[in-house]
Design goal:
The chain is mainly alpha-helical and 101 residues long. It has 4 helices and no strands. Helices cover 86% and strands 0% of the residues. It is elongated, with a radius of gyration of 15 Å.
Length: 101
């Protein structure tokens, strides 16, 4: 049986990968879906921020059982939003729960 921290690691890793994938899709699709240059720039900037958040989540998923990283992952998951952000938050909470128990 796997420990809660390992399950949290896997869930947070999947969430971080989803954040990266959706951000890359947003960056690629930004010039095609926008009706003006400012909207395209906003979608591009949002995609870049999401990409950075996703990369940090993928790297930080390894340390989900540490208190500091778990708090950072919870905050980043809330900022990122979407299904990937929810998975990162759930994984970080599982890592915290394993640390408590």
């Amino acid at each position: 049986m796997a420990s809660l921290s390992y399950v949290g690691y896997v869930i947070a890793l999947i969430g971080g990968i989803l954040i990266v994938i959706f951000s890359l899709l947003g960056i690629i699709g930004s010039p095609f879906l926008a009706f003006s240059a400012t909207v395209a720039l906003g979608v591009l900037a949002s995609g870049i921020v999401g990409l950075i958040l996703g990369i940090i989540c993928v790297i930080g998923a390894k340390y989900v059982s540490h208190l500091g990283w778990a708090i950072v992952l919870i905050v980043l998951g809330i900022i990122a939003g979407g299904i990937g952000g929810v998975l990162v938050v759930i994984g970080a909470l599982l890592g915290l729960l394993d640390r408590i128990v």
